[in-house]
Each structure stands twice: as structure tokens, then as C-alpha cells.
Amino acid sequence: MTPLVSLADVQQAAARIRGVARVTPLLDLSLAVPGSSVVRRLSVKCENLQPGGAFKLRGAYNMLAQLTEADRSRGVITYSSGNHGQSLALAAHLLEARAVIVMPTTAPAVKVEGAKRYGAEVLFEGTTTLQRKARAEVEAEARGLTMVPPFDHPWIIAGQGTIGLEIVEQCADLGTVYVQVGGGGLISGIAAAVKRLTPHVRVVGVEPCGAPKMSTSLAAGHPVTLERTSSIADGLLAVRPGDLTFPHVQALVDDVVTVGDQGILDALRWLFRDAKLVVEPSGAITVAAAFAGAGGPGTGTAVAILSGGNVAPDAFAGYLTNGVASSH
Questions:
Q1: Same-domain status, 135 and 13
Q2: CATH for 34
Q3: How much is the pTM?
Q4: How many domains, in total, are found in the chain?
Q5: pLDDT-wise least confident of 79-93, 138-152, 163-177
Q6: Average pLDDT, rounded, for the chain
Q7: Is 52 left (phi over 0), alpha (psi -120 to 50) or beta?
Q8: In the structure, how many helices (H) and strands (E) does the chain have?
Q9: Across-strand partners of 21?
Q10: Which of 5, 166, 232, 265 is deepest in the core (most CB within 10 A)?
Q11: Domain, as residue range, for 307
């Protein structure tokens, strides 16, 4: 069995990414929370303010910085719904490496343009993680590129786990951490840090009702591939958890819950209206779970990860006014 990422791995990643990834603010929004007996104290971890607009820079840079000069000089490639691709493009730009990103044909234009802005070559393939992964593997073999996976690698997980280190330092009465679940890299890393430092704190994963890959896999006792996924949370539509992230969640995460699109929209609107924060649907899903008291009320402060803010203006306007995106 592959060993889990250790606290030391995460701490070393924090030193490696220092000065590149921001230590993002933890904002106390308790006074703005609508009247509720479930959520007493709520803070949000603003990864939407990260360079590249999402938490993914942490893992991408941590991995690229550990590659050999020869591996970087050949160029790097990944498959991504958008945010990992943008962050890899930025990390590659900083380390003077060529980057190729395979995105789904349905990728929001704002995420495609973000990757191109940092100099990456963008290819399009299918609509699922497995389809773009297969294309990326073909391209890597044909061009001699180094693969930088979006979530299922210990260096990626350790980089994302630096968020957990920051939360523990920033929140003295931490009770519950709500974390998005796509392929599982973010929650694996955060749990690896939080559970080793503060074992009493609950870590709750949140995924869309239309993409319950992790909760389905946990029920089955092994990674399960869904036939299809659907949600406005485009960054969380992986059809299968990773072979490495799944055992992390099994061992370290207290619960994984699902949230519907309406709850996500309500949270996104609340974040904009009451907290003055622009957050993409995948980023707002944790606030929706906190409002619902999903995973149990817990004690202490609930912290919701705002994983990203990469959303096109017209799409965001649609979410705010009509409850739907007018376009990507």
C-alpha cells in the first residue's frame, strides 16, 4: 500500500512554495451568516485570492520545483478542468518550462484564457477526467513531456496540504473544516495536515449531488468510476477519485456530504452580496454545506475553503440574477 502523505511532507512543501503561493486570509464572516442554529461561527479561507485564482498553484509549484532540470526542460503536461491547468501554466512560466494543458471541450473560457495568458498550449479532449487523462498520456509519450497530474500524486497532495497548516495557525478555536472534493487532492492534503496537528478537528468533504464519486467510492470500499457527472460546480466533476487520494480520505476524513446546485447558487450569491467575494460555484459549495450543517454541527469555528474564483463575468451575472450561467 502506498504510504499517506506525512505532516513533514506538507511542511517541506510550505517551505518550497513560500514567496510564490500566498498565505491567503481567513475571514471571519460570522456576523453576516443568516440566522441559524446550525452555523454559529463561520470563517472562509480565501484561496480565490491566490495567484491564478485558485488553490492549485500550491500543488503545481510544489511538484514542478522538485522535478529535475532535465524533466522540466522537456516540458510538462497535465489534464485539467481549468484551475490546475492555469496554475500549472503559471508555475511553468515562473520556472521557465513549457506547459501543455488538456482541457475538456466544455471548459469555461475564463479558465482556458487564463492558461494561455501564462503561455501554455491548450488542447481539448472530451468532457470527463478519464478522457482528457488518456489524451494527455498520449501527448506526453509522443512529445517526451513530463506528466504533472491534477490530484493523484504525493507532491500535489502535499502542496495542497499547506492550506491546512495555515488554517490551524490562523484559527485558534477550529472545529470543522469543509473541503471541496473533486479528484480528492485538496481534501487529502488538508486532512493530512489538520488531522496530524489537531486530531479533534472534523474534516468534512463536500461534493455536488450530481458528482458523488468519493461518497459512492467510500460506500463501496474502493474507488468507483461514475458513468457521468453533472453540476454547475465544473471543477468538481471528476468521475473517479484517485488511487492515492481515496485511501487518504478513508483514513483521515470524518465525513463526505453532497450539496445540490441550488444550495451552491444560494451560497455563491450570499458570498457576493454579504461578504463581497467573487467565488466560482466549486468554491462556494463548502459554504452551502456549512449553512446546511452537513456533516454534523461540530464545535468551535467552521472553516469553509473557497477553492477558487475563476468565473467569467457573464456566467457570474447569470448565477446572480437567474440562477444559471448565461454562457461559459
A1: no
A2: 3.40.50.1100
A3: 0.93
A4: 2
A5: 79-93
A6: 92
A7: left
A8: 13, 10
A9: 18
A10: 5
A11: 7-54+154-321
